[in-house]
Amino acid sequence: MRVVVAPDKFAGTLTAVEAAEAIRAGWSRRAPDDELVLRPMSDGGPGFVDVLHEALGGELLAVTVTGPYAAPAPAAVLRVGDTAYVESAQAVGLHLTPPEERDPERATSRGLGELVRAAVEAGARRVVVGLGGSATNDGGAGALAALGATAQGGVLDAGPAALPGITAVDLEPARELLAGVELVAASDVDNPLAGLRGATRTFGPQKGLADERLVEVDSWLDDFGARCDKFVATSKGAGAAGGLGFALLLLGATREAGVAMVADAVGLPQAVRAADLVVTGEGAFDFSSRSGKVPYGVAQVAAEGLRPCVALAGAVLIGAREMRTLGVESAYSLVDLVGEERAFADPAGALADLAERTARTWSR
Fold first, then answer.
1. Strand ranges inside 81-200, DSSP E
2. CB of 168 closer than 8 Å to CB of 210
3. What is the three-class DSSP state of 235?
4. pLDDT tens digits, one per residue of 147-158
5. DSSP 180
6. Distance of alpha carbon 318 from the chain centroid
């Protein structure tokens, strides 16, 4: 058989590249004659640059930027011709700060703006920004500041708690910096900046924002959006990465689906058409996987190529009917096979074991 292996990261344990290698190792133990074609994937969140570098090659430019709580954060700009790829999670990712030290009301997205600036100053004429996994919820104000925007009545790069004092924002310096540069926001998140489906109420709790603070912090972003551009604030994708989508859209960015962009870049559709089976995966496979996550996107590509798709996951939290709604024939759980302790202690080995067992069912 020819099997395409196209997983996302297993958050907190394996990168997408590592997950793909683990699946290959385990599958090959059971079916050594099968041809395994690896296509690690990303939706624009953590691992976006690594996956594209693996697929496209190019040059990595090392950059040190401001992390969400001002500590230096190592990041990279991937240059492929005139296009640069950068990743919000590298600059302002949630993983950069331990849970007990997080304070999302003061976290700044300045580092992402510094990363975009580095790409432009390196000569890129097109900058693609992968959005996801951020620790920030400042409406992208910090990123705007790093790109040259200024504010009256306050500062842009001190987190959402500094937004209420701002009376006006001048975006022209940032727009001048980006003149002649095509800006692309790669994200499958379609939430607006504020409101019931906005950045704060949807993603704030996972960044450490207390439930009793959601209403007030959301009002800060709502007011900030109105001062900058109310129409853009209500656009799909403005709420991505704590409002970094809003900042990019303000500066003229176009929004593209992250999974589809990566799929095209790594040649997933072509690989699927030449395969017998597609294997995807992620840390937790549940019904939210339909909201622009990798397994759903990979399953759609598999369906277009009339190929079956199965998923390997840390945990499977939906039943057979729901997974088939997502386009997945079967899903297999790491925790169910080896237990939670080993799944976290030896994620690569455990995933290889799960792949080996899956091959017993699916390899001819």
1. 83-87, 126-130, 150-152, 168-170, 182-186
2. no
3. coil
4. 999 999 999 999
5. T
6. 22
Other C-beta atoms closer than 10 Å to the C-beta of 108 total: 28
> Of 106, 118, 308, 141, which is closest to residue 223 (Cα–Cα)?
141
Residue 364: exposure state from Cβ atoms within 10 A (0-12, 13-18, ≥19): exposed
- Residue 305 near residue 272 (C-beta atoms within 8 A): yes
The two structure tokens encoding residue 180: 């002649």
C-alpha Rg value of the chain to the nearest Å: 21
Whole-model pTM over 0.85: yes
Of residues 184, 175, 187, 182, the one with CA closest to residue 82: 182
| Helix, strand, coil percentages in the chain from 3-state DSSP, rounded to 5 | 45, 20, 35
CA 128 distance to own-chain centroid = 12
192-to-43, 79, 156, 249 alpha-carbon distances in Å: 18, 30, 20, 11
Instruction: Give the angle 95-99-100 at the CA atoms, nearest 5°.
Output: 145
Residue 238's Cβ-side half-sphere holds a number of Cα atoms within 13 Å equal to: 27
Place of tokens 């919000």: 88
φ/ψ bin of 182: left (φ > 0), alpha (ψ from -120 to 50), beta (otherwise): beta
Domains of the chain with CATH codes: 2-39+267-362 (3.40.50.10350), 48-258 (3.90.1510.10)
Q: pLDDT for 56-96, tens place per residue?
A: 999 999 999 999 999 999 999 999 999 999 999 999 999 99
Q: Classify 42 as helix, strand or coil.
A: coil
d(CA 289, CA 316) in angstroms, rounded, equals 11
Which residues have CB under 8 Å from 168's CB, separation 6+?
A: 151, 152, 153, 227
- Taking the C-alpha atoms of residue 27 and residue 363, their distance in angstroms, rounded to an integer, is 9
- DSSP letter at 96 equals G
- Six-digit token string for 288: 């939210």
Question: Which positions ≥6 away from 218 have C-beta within 8 Å?
Answer: 194, 195, 198, 200, 201, 204
Contact, 191 vs 243, CB < 8 A? no
Instruction: Let me know if 254 is exposed, middle or buried by CB neighbors in 10 A (0-12, 13-18, 19+).
Output: exposed
